[in-house]
Amino acid sequence: MIATRSRHPAHASAVARHVSAEGCQFVVEQGNVAEGQSLGLAVDGHPPIRGTVRWVVSDRIGFAFDCPLPRDAQAALQQRGRSARTVSLYLA
Asked: InterPro entries, alphabetically (predicted)?
């Protein structure tokens, strides 16, 4: 499950797609995201995940993780995407 609590307000909300150890695609539902931005998100039971927006096309972004994502964190993020539940993205 994805945590949505943070000391900072959410910068954007998005649904994760095509999750791998190196990155994923997000479909942005709210907020503005730009190429090159550093963002973070939380997956319950895992350290915060940070990464960089590599590309933006319409409402979709390519997101590269700063460190490879462990399999169990990948599975949690992928499961949330399958159920079309949004993830809160924070400025890192």
From this structure: PilZ_domain
